[in-house]
Amino acid sequence: MDLINFIIYLTLWISGTVFGSFFTLAVHRIPKHQDITHERSYCPNCNHKLQFLDLIPVWSYIFLGGKCRYCKNKIRPRYLILEITSGLVFLLLGLWRNIGLNTSIHEFIIFAFDILFLCFGFISIGIFKETKKLPKGLIIYGVSVTTAKIIYSVVVHSIWS
Ligand SMILES: [Zn+2]
Description:
It is built from 5 helices and no strands.
């Protein structure tokens, strides 16, 4: 693997871990009808708002020794496992889709659809594990992403090939 590809896949892995920490937040907040995009993450034990450095996936967990910086409460290692797994899934998806410098815009769009669908997959599994049900909004999101991807594939296929 040359340097460019190494950088591309490292970036993919890091993006995956960032998505992974967003999934944890979404799984935690969606069933409680809390805002998932605007409000900063907080420690579920002491409710202290997390600072930028506390939010770096994987690294912050290792650096803080798996504890909240403010109340020293232990953070469950599954957050770390989820972030690493999510990073790996992004990496594998990139390899499978053969993402690189020669990737066409069309392939990138399909890849983006895959990522949007992965968000649905990860968050659904997480919420289902916690609550044994799926929120309606999430199902609508999953169906919309899939429909949009099919429409896009069919349209592009008939126009450009
Ligand atoms: Zn705390």
